[in-house]
Amino acid sequence: MPPRKIVAENHATKLFVLDTNVLMHDPTSLFRFEEHDIYLPIFVLEELDNNKKGMTEVARNARQASRFLDSLISESTHNIDAGVPLQTPSNKSATGRLFLQTQFITNELPANMAIGKADNAILGVVMFLHNQQPKRSVILVSKDINMRIKARALGLDAQDYFNDKVLEDTDLLYTGVLALPQDFWDKHGKDMKSGPQGEHTFYNIQGPLCRDMLLNQFVYQENGGHPFYAVVTEQNDNTAMLRTLTDYTHTKNAIWGITARNREQSFVLNLLMNPEIDFVTLLGQAGTGKTLLTLAAGLVQMLEHKLYSEIIMTRVTVPVGEDIGFLPGTEEEKMSPWMGALDDNLDVLNKPNDESGEWGRAATRDLIRSRIKIKSLNFMRGRTFLNKYLIIDEAQNLTPKQMKTLITRAGPGTKVVCMGNIAQIDTPYLTEGSSGLTYVVDRFKGWQHSGHVTLQRGERSRLADHAGEVL
């Protein structure tokens, strides 16, 4: 007896066969394929079952995917063989159908491919569907690069899961900085109004470039000895208001003894020192000064301006090398090996003072250290931070969901600073385009209480800068 047709052929729509890692990365992927159909091999369900235990993000996603499948099948009045409609559960965002493997499929794979391995079994299902419906596009969707290579080697279509990506090309990511062309004032200076605004000067301009400006975006023009640096404070269609900045490269404006060494660092300090900005994102490679500037601004606003009661610092604990096992001690002591960057920067900020001597320096360091709390991400859920200065380091390793969990902890009077380098992602399944840091930079741009700067120049040492270029 020939095997029955699993799917009613519809050549206009595609049939996507999902690998397990797609569901474990994004359980809502079931509802992300619009008018196309989805097919789940039986091995995918078994792998979901094998990965459901534990408190990791992958285990949580596996459980959520299983719940989605359970509700889809239990609420559907359709025969599973005919496919479960996704239109109602997805609020009409997906109009295709979900098919589960309901029959035993034996498809001839090359003899040298191991039988019984889940990946190969899924490839066998894709090959069976491809042969059964030659006129329809059958595509394997997997986050596993080697799985996709094997599929293509067998003559099957395969692709990555793209729906989680905020941007296809991270070169297009918002930098927070806009260079003004040399003829900017000729085109935008007509009918311009300007005047003092506190310690700064405002410029009310209109012209075509104003449409591209976003709130709290920094604009600059290098004119020889008289550079122009400003921030966009208002934007409406083809008009905008620019306000000049505080020059933090000058020693009179030093923050905890730290002065900005370049244009972007001065922009960063303007964001960090502005109490109207609740959320700051900083991108940049190692040595651009992200942690140092953030800590300096936090210490000044906590100890001198009394804006915040304490600094809270957290980061994702993803080891670069082999894990060193369980660490003894309290939450703070367990996190301290991950916080070497904090201690290194405190050494820079707590410069020796000849008047106070070594004892005075040690006392100052202990005072500062007592006001900086190190917290683990694992215990953030359910908390609310009031009047805190929250620093999220290495934020490129967070998923968008984890980022949302953290940022929504902020209560009244709290400032959140996220920083990281999207070129250094250590978490499996996350890429530059799908990182939580990329996600918040893109989603928060243009909000009046948030700001972003991408730092370009390393300021660590000539050795570090040269190593960054040649290695």
TrEMBL record:
SUPFAM superfamilies (alphabetical): P-loop containing nucleoside triphosphate hydrolases, PIN domain-like
Domain of life the protein comes from: Bacteria
UniProt keywords, alphabetically: ATP-binding, Nucleotide-binding
Residue stretches in coiled coil: none
All copies of domain PIN, residue ranges: 14-149
Record Pfam families: PhoH (PF02562), PIN_4 (PF13638)
Gene3D superfamilies: 5'-nuclease, P-loop containing nucleotide triphosphate hydrolases
Family per record: In the N-terminal section; belongs to the PINc/VapC protein family.
Descriptive protein name: Predicted ATPase related to phosphate starvation-inducible protein PhoH
Species, as recorded: Candidatus Nitrotoga arctica
